[in-house]
Amino acid sequence: MKRLVLAVLLALAAFSFSPALRAADEPGYSRKEVIYHRKFGTALTMDVFTPKKDANGAGVIFVVSGGWYSDHGYITGNIPTFIQPLLDKGYTVFAVVHGSNPKYAMPEILDDLHRSVRFIRHNAKEYGIEPGRLGIIGGSAGGHLSLMQGCAGKDGNPKATDPIDRESSRVQAVVSFYPPTDFLNWGENGKVMLGTHPIVPVKGAFDFHRLDPKTNSFEPITDEKQREEIGKKISPINHVAKDNPPTLIVHGDKDPLVPLQQAETMAAKLKEAGVPSELIVKKGGGHDGVLVKEHMPKALEWFDKYLAKKTESPRNPK
Predict the structure, then answer these.
(1) Apex CA 29: angle with CA 24 and CA 33, to 5°?
(2) Sheet with 42-51, side-by-side order of all strands
(3) At 179, phi and psi to the nearest 5?
(4) Beta-strand relationship, 217-220 and 209-212
(5) Which residues make beta-bridge pairs with 281?
(6) Which of 142, 151, 204, 259 could form a disulfide with 65 if both were Cys (CB 3.0 to 4.6 A apart)?
(7) pLDDT above 70: percentage of residues in the chain
(8) pTM, full prediction
């Protein structure tokens, strides 16, 4: 009897550690953390997810951000919702971690995103993608930053010492879930939200500073008019132009954190400018992963349509 039990256990062990089973358990992608920039002695990183087969030559940036708080530890939790569906369609995914609230304010965060796009484009060959086929996706603060990258992407500086800064930071398609879009008209005309959110602690992202060259220190900007001017610059709605990339926005009409009005006014502005765009309003939808999961198929269709080939726009990279 003991010999029979031992034989069964050995057989089960051999099955459990068989090459076929191990292969089934292994993910269908590789994952690598890379440094895309350093500032004030701090390394900024992104995780690069590459499909092991059937890569389509296009890349999608996933903005790791909630309340403009960004943490490398958040990436793994977003694999099922955002990253895996993109990988399954053959996209190489770049999960970008930016300088985080409360240490860094919005203007600095936006600079990080520009740098990340330039870094990816500069290293496109290494990642097996075409530099003119880059999309971006995110939810909430990540949705806001995705829209900013779409609407306010910049050309490269051909005279820059750093070759990465010679690259464009423009993207070719945007998908944004429940995004803030206008901080000076928050839910209604004239209502300002520059860190004074009633539920979410986002004040650090709006803690604007300027560098004083005499003292070589950062001084807070407290003048309300100056703060509102910055608020205008960091609102995607104020950067809409006819050459913005195709943009999909998804928002729930029961969102407790970001007013639906933010998506509606942004969508109207994009349509007025003639930008290929669509707004999906989910009846009863909130501010959560349920909304994302339900509409990821539409997001994938969006990227498939607009990243199928590199853009011919003269304002975007060839």
Answers:
(1) 135
(2) 29-39, 42-51, 92-97, 59-64, 134-139, 173-177, 247-252, 277-282
(3) -95, 145
(4) antiparallel
(5) 251
(6) 142
(7) 89
(8) 0.90
